[in-house]
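Entry:
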Amino acid sequence: MNKNEKDSNNIEEQQSSVSGYVSSIHVASPVSSNISVKIVDEYNRTLLEDGLLTYGIYSSPGTQLLRVLELALIHNKKVKVTKHIHEGTTFIDHIALLGDLI
């Protein structure tokens, strides 16, 4: 493979991030062991639609990521989400809660 071409199997090359607010969390949708998340910007424009947790909700990382999403939704806090796309599905790998600047 030419070094200038991207390997479609390399997840790291497909990673990106978005910063915004958790607009909705759909539990048991579309997969019963996962959730679906929607992230929007301050103008309510969709930045991420139907993002699934990479690890699901029954594993330790998945449970912790779900808690961060719940806190962000309840307290209207901004998050930075690192995601990757695999076979057309967007998966969330990392979530950071962003604090308010003084």
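Strands lie at 16-27, 35-40, 46-53, 78-86, 89-98.
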